[in-house]
Amino acid sequence: MSTLRKKARITSVVAGIGIVAVLAAGCSRGGDSGGSSDGPVEASPGITDTSITLGITTPLSGATAGPGTCTVAGITAWFGAKNAEGGVEFGDGVTREVIIDALDDAYDPQKALANFQQLEGSAFLMTSGLGTPTNRAYREAAIADEVPQVLIQTGDPIFSNEEESPWQLGFVPIYQNEGAAFGELLASSGEDHKVAILAQNDDYGEGYVEGFKEAIEGADNIEIVDELTYEATDTDVNAQLTELAATDADVFFNAMSITPLVISSLLKTQELGWLPSWFLPSNTSSPGAILTPGNAVAFPGIYTVAFAQSASSPTFADSEEGAAFLSNLAEYADYPDVPAFPHCVWSYQIGATLEQVFAKMTEPTREDFMEQLRTISDFTAPLMLEGASINTTEDGQPAISGVTVQKYNGAGYATAETFG
User: What is the mean pLDDT of residues 291-302?
Assistant: First the structure.
């Protein structure tokens, strides 16, 4: 029997999302803070002998609601299935049910901070939430209050620097790694290329460009002919695209995080008659949600990077892991459709990684959780691409650091061994 119900605390009702809500009563382990030093350890907020609550602040409405919804759906599906089997066994010998408490921040940093402040007293940790500005909004508060903010969906390297962020750890590859992977592929092509760059005017865009530039440094076949920025709040980038089109660059490096802007940019460049090969970040390169409405087949190549299998792949559902993922997503997250965004798979993998950490915890404390979190090595989470794995032991790197460059084939992606 399913042990799930909707949580009334969700601030927005988003189609296709169910939140794990097994509310199990139970006393905290060692809840009496006056216990002796050799007695039971006092449990941190959000964990009891029967349950653990995970907090998420993420965009469930607005322009980034598509991927934001996925950041909850995947982890809900993972732990929904585990709860239905009886719960998750922790390293202290206790089996607990997992509660997901997700709040909508609409990709607004102020709302993200308010959500964290609402959740920190009842959630054991914060996880999976999407966005650099939103995760940064409560990072310092999480450090001050010693609340884990881990396996979050931002490639900002600050979250994986243990000295700067002792209570944090990113999940997805840092932006520099993604940009560098494409730069290396392009530089190794042996052909001359002119590159035009458009990047989001924040740490997100800067990270991608930094990695790309470092990878092509010294490559005499690559010339950056123009470089522009845009604000995440912009409703269009037509002026920038018009200027970049005039360069006649054959490669467009577009470090853009806003889904509607990517679609409109694909269409605008076609209108301008500029048809370069594109690079798009992993989080805004969905075949179904972005490339199809943007008529991406008009371009000679659309490149991105990946570490996880794509649910939109024609063969995805044929595999045992793919079929289980889709079944769990439908049953436990009320998400019956094949997800268009990779974030659903990513948050499913986050759930699997958290379970690995829980299995190592011998004390119900945030301190022990953080200690065990940094011991995961060579863990192959479900739905990872061949060669990819989880490693949380390298300071300065998130849980996943390696990526594979892929090229759009009109339906999905295939590994790009060479550029062109």
Answer: 97
Tokens of residue 5, six digits: 């119900």
d(CA 100, CA 354) in angstroms, rounded, equals: 13
Q: In what order do the strands lie in the sheet with 168-170?
A: 88-89, 95-104, 51-58, 125-127, 149-152, 168-170
Closest C-alpha among 146, 199, 173 to residue 342: 173
Residue 103 main-chain phi, psi, to 5 deg: -120, 150
Q: Please state the φ and ψ torsions of residue 391, each to the nearest 5 degrees.
A: -140, 110
Single-letter residue type at 342: P
Scan for tokens 């998400």, then name that residue. Answer: 335
Angle 259-271/238-245 helices, nearest 10 degrees?
40
Contact between 287 and 312 (Cβ < 8 Å): yes
Quick: pLDDT tens for 110-151: 999 999 999 999 999 999 999 999 999 999 999 999 999 999
**Residue 70's closest CA among 109, 139, 14?**
14
- Would you give the distance in Å from CA 135 to the centre of its chain? 11
Give the separation between CA 66 and CA 50, rounded to whole angstroms: 33
User: How far is 230 from 209, CA to CA, in rounded Å?
Assistant: 13
User: Which H or E run includes 407?
Assistant: strand 404-408
The residue count for the chain: 420
Angle at 285 between CA 298 and CA 316, to 5 degrees: 100
Q: Tell me the chain's radius of gyration from C-alpha atoms.
A: 22
pLDDT grade, residue 40 (50/70/90)? confident
Give the type of residue at 60: L
**Residue 76, amino acid:** T
Q: What is the pTM of this model?
A: 0.84
Q: Dihedrals φ, ψ of 62, to 5°?
A: 90, -170
Secondary structure string (H, E, C) spanning 213-248: HHHHCCCCCEEEEEEEEECCCCCCCHHHHHHHHCCC
Three-state SS annotation for 148-194: CEEEEECCCHHHHCCCCCCCEEECCCCHHHHHHHHHHHHHCCCCCEE
**Tokens encoding 193:** 């290329």
* CA distance linking residue 192 with residue 248, whole number of Å: 13
Q: Which two three-digit tokens encode residue 150? A: 């881990």
Extended strands (E) in 132-174? 149-152, 168-170
Alpha-carbon gap, residue 184 to 221, rounded angstroms: 12
DSSP letters, 408-419, are E-SSSEEE-SS-
Question: What's the pLDDT score for residue 38?
Answer: 63
Residues 34 and 42: beta-carbon distance below 8 Å: no
Q: Tokens 């089996």, residue?
A: 95
